[in-house]
Specification:
Distance between the termini: 10 Å
Number of domains: 1
Order of helices and strands: EHEHEHEHHEEHEEHEEHEEHEEHHH
CATH architecture: 3-Layer(aba) Sandwich
Shape: globular
Strand content: 15-25%
Helix content: 40-55%
Oligomer: single chain
Structural class: alpha/beta
Largest sheet: 7 strands, parallel
Radius of gyration: 19 Å
Number of helices: 12
CATH topology: Rossmann fold
Length: 359
């Protein structure tokens, strides 16, 4: 992992470190030799990976990213050189149910993080993680590129579009700072991977149904999403952070980290592959349930910019992503969470080393 060697020994803050992607990222940073600090709400509803990691953090703080004073205090205490901002309310359906909390966390939280980073001279770089849903989606079969229009009608998508605009504004403001501060934004697709137990997400819903020997209930089997294993975009975030702390001003921009086009498939196609890997089970179409908000029919990402300028490529195709994810949950050898996560990162890094052109 020569591309990431400069992260060794650096103080790195991960907001949302107790969440699904935040915990995986924190583990990977620790393996790379970084000093890892965390900031998150206590009792994250999707903290299964975090709880199973064991000692992984140099220090942690637990508070709300919407509380500027608490977040600024953590930045002053940890003095990170690099910040990965993942703290978010990350579910579209929860956004419909809790719009104020969603905007508060995703918009005000991002604003607070960027202001706290700008005020502290130790911070050299920030990677703000948003989503593929920050684009203005009019239902066309169009792979979104970074210069496409931002927007969204549901609270989650609208909030993430606002966060992207705030990030771009602070990126420009940072050029006025006495010490350099480089700010980037990362947009990923529908990530899967071991340890996600969220509501309203396909893989956790499948796992719960199959473990209870019930059919998987599909709301929107024809909806198309850019499916990818969480390690693929996380590797992109790490590459981006590494470039930023090295002072690469060209990396201070917005970046898509999505899967290859052939991994943008329908919900039913993913379920069919999952059942093959799981070895049993069935599904039933239940349709959209009463009280649930609308979701986009098609979502696809164009990641050619990251391929061209960051030398990042998707490493695991859909079959590999499903295989590793299903195996993590089935856990045939009764391994601990930490061992299962380490094994997946080992396998991912081995694939990178076998195929350096895809990294």
């Amino acid at each position: 992992m020569k591309q990431l060697q400069n992260l060794r020994g650096r103080p790195v803050l991960v907001t949302g470190h107790t969440g699904f992607k935040g915990a995986w990222l924190s583990l990977w940073l620790q393996r790379l030799g970084a000093q890892v600090f965390g900031f998150s709400n206590q009792g994250h509803p999707n903290d299964a990976v975090y709880r199973g990691l064991g000692p992984c953090f140099n220090a942690e703080a637990f508070d709300d990213v919407a509380d500027f004073a608490a977040l600024q205090c953590a930045v002053q205490r940890f003095e990170p050189e690099l910040i990965f901002h993942l703290a978010a309310q990350s579910l579209v359906q929860t956004g419909y149910q809790q719009p104020f909390q969603t905007f508060s966390t995703n918009v005000t939280g991002t604003l607070n993080l960027l202001e706290a980073a700008q005020r502290h001279p130790a911070v050299k770089a920030v990677v703000v993680v948003t989503t593929d849903k920050c684009y203005r989606n009019q239902g066309h079969s169009h792979a979104f590129a970074e210069d496409d229009a931002l927007g969204g009608t549901d609270p989650y998508s609208a909030g993430k579009a606002c966060a992207a605009l705030i990030t771009a504004s602070y990126r420009d403001l940072a050029t006025q700072r006495t010490t350099p501060l480089l700010i980037a934004e990362a947009r990923a697709g529908n990530v899967i991977g071991g340890g996600d137990f969220s509501a309203y997400r396909l893989v956790p819903d499948m796992v719960r149904a199959l473990q209870n020997q019930k059919p998987i209930g599909l709301r929107n089997p024809s909806h198309i999403r850019p499916w990818q294993h969480c390690l693929d975009p996380l590797y992109g975030y790490l590459l981006l952070g590494s470039r930023l702390v090295n002072g690469d001003t060209h990396a201070a921009d917005a970046w898509n980290f999505g899967p290859a086009p052939e991994s943008c498939v329908s919900v039913q196609t993913l379920v069919d592959q999952w059942l093959v890997q799981w070895g049993s089970g069935s599904f039933a179409v239940i349709g959209q349930q009463q009280g649930q908000g609308k979701e986009a029919q098609v979502l696809q990402l164009d990641s050619q910019k990251a391929t061209r300028l960051l030398a990042w490529h998707p490493t695991w195709n859909l079959q590999a992503a499903v295989h590793h994810t299903a195996n993590w949950y089935r856990n045939p050898h009764n391994l601990t969470v930490r061992v299962r996560c380490d094994r997946d990162i080992d396998a991912f890094e081995a694939e990178l080393n076998r195929n350096p052109s895809a990294s």
